[in-house]
Amino acid sequence: MIIFGFLPVIAFFSLYRYFTTQQKDIGPGRRVAFLKAAIIWGFLVVVVTELLSYVYAINVVSLAVYWSAVAIFFFILSLTSKTGWFPLIKTLLGLTLFEKYVCFFIGFFTLLTFIVAALACPNSWDANIYHLSRVAFWKQNHSVAHYPTPDYRQLFLPPWVEYAELQFQVLTNSDYFACLTSWFAYGGNALVVSLLGALWGANRVQQLLMALAVLTIPTAITEASGVRGDIILSFWSVVFVTMLVWSLRKAELGNILLTGIALGLGVLSKGTMYLLALPLLLWFLFEAIHQFNWKKALIAVLIIVVAALAVNSAFYWRNYKQLGCIITQRDEQYVVTHQMTLPLVFSNVIKNVFSQLGTPIHGINRSIEGLVNQLHQWLHIDPLDPRADYQGNVFKVYVGTYEEQVTNCLQVLLIIIGGIGLLVMGLKEKRFELCRLLFALGVAFVYISSSILWSVNLTRFLLSVMVIALPLVFLWIARQRRPRWILWILVTMLVVFSSKI
Q1: pLDDT tens-digit profile of 109-125?
Q2: What are the Cα distances from residue 216, in Å, to 75, 179, 397, 441?
Q3: Contact at 8 Å (CB) between 364 and 471?
Q4: Which of 63, 173, 342, 383 could form a disulfide with 376 if both were Cys (CB 3.0 to 4.6 A apart)?
Q5: Is the dihedral angle over the CA atoms 82, 88, 91, 93 positive or is it negative?
């Protein structure tokens, strides 16, 4: 039975091979193929799950036949391909010593997290309460239809992460593959952010640094071997942004549809995508109007939104039949703000930023806590105001290895410093579209901070913003005039700071 679990993987590689036949460039072209293959594979997961669920036919035979057919179909379509791996291998052999140094750690983190994801079981509390529990019920019922349960999170939370896990659990009759979807998103982030950098003109060194920066985010490392949706959402978020940029470069209907599907998969993975997508869609609309005209821009946004809604339509319909609304907060309302004022927004923004600056030095952490409390006093804000704070959580800087409390100090500092530098560079070089994207990410960060009650356990919701922002700020960081050894130190620091987990 275990061997059946490789069928969806084989189908993905068939998709990837098919899309490589349509790409000419060995470097970015292969990553564009990966991007499109991931989107189509994610969409096919939704299609097969919903169709088989409708007739209560989610079982090993039906899924094995489906993924085998997908793999064979796209493999046949790609038979005319003459692309090989030799040019890619030649490129790897031609790397400089510094580039090989960066590639070594990229491979190290990818391999290490794969081993953990393949051998270890999910150990977070919510994995067993509703993430994996709903998969077990779906497998038992041969359908993703709603069922009686005291925990509504098993029914109404976005289900794409569990849809993907369901494929492997049914095919293998085990949970050996439970964490590999998250690991795929973790490794996929590195590929996609390097492509995003390439679309903005980053050179090879910058692209490698972007990939390593994303792979060394401590929160991402801890979630790469779990079943939580934050790492999955970060993947679909950066895929969505990359497809937005790609659609501006090549405004084709196929690219716009894929962008909408990517948005839909993000929404179907975690509700935070609603908050993140709005500023990014407004940025795309503005850029499309500037580049084309308002009519084409509105049509493109409309297609993206309709495609995203179509991906989520079956899930919405089940919720509507059960509760009379497509999105419910019945069990998650305790983490959502209901009344926010400007001072409270400042409070959550301050706490979200400074809570990520934890270091192994306790004296520094205590100083950060004192600074945050002092800032609240200056602004006349109660840091424990229940309208913005989750269950009276006293602000505290944690430095632990648990995925809800791990901090991302170096990456956040790089985003702050690099963001200011990128803004200045963009204004100086008149790259206003880059400045506007950075502004949209800032708005998304503030929007999420003001919509979610603050708790150190919920700062992981901001992982997607961090993954998108890092490749942008490295456009500035890697361009600064500096001795070569500074980049060596930067890479070493990324590795060392991630080793605390």
Answers
A1: 999 999 998 888 777 77
A2: 34, 18, 20, 21
A3: no
A4: 383
A5: negative
- By three-state DSSP, how is residue 162 classified? helix
pLDDT score recorded for residue 81: 60
Q: Identify the DSSP state of 184.
A: H
Contact 318, 146 (CB under 8 A): yes
Residue 16 to residue 37: CA distance in whole angstroms: 5
Give strand pairing partners of 389: 454
- Of the pLDDT bands very low, low, confident and very high (cuts 50, 70, 90), residue 331 is very low
The more confidently predicted of residues 226 and 28 is 226
Q: How far apart are CA 251 and CA 300, in angstroms?
A: 9
What angle do helix axes 180-199 and 463-477 make, rounded to 10 degrees? 40
User: Which of 276, 194, 184 has its CA nearest to residue 232?
Assistant: 184
Contact of 19 with 41, CB cutoff 8 Å: no
Report the alpha-carbon distance of residue 222 to residue 217 in Å, rounded. Answer: 9
Q: Is the dihedral of CA 448, 449, 451, 456 positive or negative?
A: positive
Length of the chain: 501
Please tell me the pTM assigned to this model: 0.93
Tokens of 329: 């907060």
Can you tell me the distance from the alpha carbon of 382 to that of 278, in angstroms, rounded to the nearest whole number? 30
CA atoms within 13 A on the CB side of 153: 15
d(C-alpha 106, C-alpha 92), whole Å: 13
Token pair recorded at residue 201: 């003109």
Give the residue ranges of DSSP H helices in 59-179: 60-77, 86-93, 97-119, 125-126, 132-141, 153-156, 160-172
pLDDT at 91: 66
CB–CB of 167/8 below 8 Å?
yes
User: How does pLDDT run across 432-471, given as a tens digit for each residue?
Assistant: 888 899 999 999 999 998 888 888 778 888 999 999 999 8
If you average pLDDT over each of 19-28, 80-89, 127-136, 390-399, which comes out highest? 127-136
Taking the C-alpha atoms of residue 165 and residue 452, their distance in angstroms, rounded to an integer, is: 27
